[in-house]
Amino acid sequence: MMVYDIIIIGAGTAGISAYKEAIKHTNNILIINQGPWDTTCARVGCMPSKLLISSANQLHDAKTLDKVGIQSSIYIDTSKVMQRVRKYRDQFTASVMKDVNSWEKSHKINGKACFIDATTIEVNGKQYTSKSFIIAVGSTPRENKVWEDDLGDLLLTSDTIFELSSLPKSIAIIGSGAIATELAQALYNLDVKVHIFTRSKHIAIATSPKIQMLIQDELSQKLNVFFETTPTLKKINNQISINYLDNSNKEQKLCVDYVLNATGRTSLLKTLQLNNIDPNFHKIENLPIAKDTKQLANLPFFVIGDAYTNTPVQHEASHEGKVAVKNCLSYPDITAKKNYPPLSIVFSSPEIAIVGQSYQQLKEAKQEFTVGFASYANQGRATVLGKNIGGIEIYIDNETHKFLGSEIYVTQGEHLAHLLAWSLAENITLEQLLSRPFYHPTLEEGLRTALRDAMYQLHEE
Ligand SMILES: Cc1cc2nc3c(=O)[nH]c(=O)nc-3n(C[C@H](O)[C@H](O)[C@H](O)COP(=O)(O)OP(=O)(O)OC[C@H]3O[C@@H](n4cnc5c(N)ncnc54)[C@H](O)[C@@H]3O)c2cc1C
User: Which residues form a coiled coil (predicted)?
Assistant: First the structure.
């Protein structure tokens, strides 16, 4: 019987990265994928969303040119915007497929894998055995069968929204996480009337009360956000009627063209019948997966990417793919994945980012830390750009003065976040950060203000 060295299940970012690493070491591998092989990131995730956001941001800048003393008149045809989204999305997916198509045919199987036992999987009625498995099955938008049945095509998810031929006049977004926030702001900037309904009191990823408040203050000027509100949805003619209770518990109603279900994503681990490996693996939430190595129990199994994570980001999925291969080949000698400094970005405008440990994580860990803050409401460079909104917090360990993390809501925050992630990797202190040159006039000068604020407080104590 043929026994593979590694079977990879799922050919998204994580699985593809694993295959590309594995092929350097062995030819005795198999990669199995159900559905398209061009990755969530390129097809319905990072790339089409950033394309839509780019058009939205540029339109917003054009519409607010008067801020920098320019009068203009603008015409927008959203069918052109959507055509551009799909044109470049197709280029990104084609580039992934070029890679995948160059792989040895006998290494690839189209189909849904599920486990028969701890060494065998079944795909399309055939069984395959391996010494080790990399499970990279990703996640899918959370389903709501009732809404699907009632609303039909008027219910969108991040899987379907980029297929719209043009943008609607109005939309209700259910959920207020990272994906919901990015799409809500992009649609608003593209002249769609946006209503957000969320069960929580939060927008996007920021955990710091101050940064969260800055985000809410800014976004609620533009988006119609209903916090802690669960609406009921009904299709009437070709629209959706939404009923909800307002702050004073009075019933209210509004009508929209579409609803976007952005209530989160669920892992596709449930498709694998992991209970055939061990009956205790019945519940996905209780799977014994090591946080640092991604190993499942003590088996030669590694669960990577969005399938099992609190930080569903492309760079982690890709990195975990490489590490999992090393661990499969050296099993039972397992090494922890090299921990990149965590970095999450929401591409709203301004961008929201968390570097390293969040405010909430530090609080939960009962860490003694100082928060340095700088507002960007009057920050020099941000004012010059006409984007003087938001602020930055940086977190410093009270004893060692080590830089621990940061929450950011600043224009071009992705670059500040990147810089800070690199600094975190160097295990840097507040004093070392402040000794670096800060050039003038830059957005980074606001970071220096936050660092000085932390220094001032630490010296006060
Ligand atoms: C709208 C949106 C925007 C995003 N924006 C960003 C961003 O800006 N930056 C960022 O870093 N990340 C972003 N992400 C997240 C990023 O896309 C994911 O972290 C990444 O794609 C996860 O890759 P993966 O390999 O784990 O999963 P996927 O790419 O989803 O791959 C999993 C594969 O496994 C297959 N599969 C599932 N079950 C089985 C089975 N039983 N048998 C065989 N095959 C199976 C699936 O069909 C799929 O092909 C975004 C995601 C979305 C949805």
Answer: none
* Per-block mean pLDDT, blocks of 10 residues, the chain (461 long): 96 98 98 98 98 98 94 96 98 98 98 98 98 98 97 98 98 98 98 97 97 96 94 97 94 97 97 97 95 96 97 96 97 86 96 98 98 98 96 98 98 98 97 98 98 96 68
What is the number of residues in the chain?
461
Q: Is the CB of 353 under 6 A from ligand 1?
A: no
Dist. CA 3–CA 15, nearest whole Å? 19
Q: Regarding the domain delimited by 3-141+266-330, which CATH topology (the fold level of the hierarchy) does it fall under?
A: FAD/NAD(P)-binding domain (3.50.50)
**Start-end of CATH 3.50.50.60 domains in the chain:** 3-141+266-330, 145-263
Q: Tell how far the Cα of 441 is from the centroid of ligand 1, in angstroms.
A: 39
Specify whether the CB–CB gap between 415 and 345 falls below 8 A.
Answer: no
**What residues does 394 pair with on adjacent strands?**
372, 406
Helix (H), strand (E) at residue 44: helix 40-44
Q: Which atom of ligand 1 is nearest to the CA of 17?
A: 25
pLDDT of residue 247: 84
Query: Which tokens is 451 given?
Result: 């660092």
Which stretches of 257-402 are assigned E, i.e. beta strand?
258-261, 265-267, 301-303, 343-346, 351-356, 369-375, 391-397
Q: Which numbered atom of ligand 1 lies nearest the CA of 40? A: 29
In 148-168, which positions are buried (b, 16+ CB within 10 angstroms) versus exposed (e)?
A: eebbeebbbbbeebbebeebb
Does ligand 1 have an atom closer than 6 angstroms to the CB of 49? Answer: yes
Please state whether the predicted TM-score (pTM) of the whole model is above 0.90.
yes
Please state the atom number of ligand 1 nearest to the C-alpha of residue 41: 17
Other residues' Cβ atoms within 10 Å of the Cβ of residue 105: 7
Q: Which of 110, 260, 306, 309 best tests ligand 1's pocket when mutated (most atoms within 8 Å of CB)?
A: 306
For residues 461 and 369, give the distance between their C-alpha atoms in angstroms, rounded to a whole number. Answer: 12
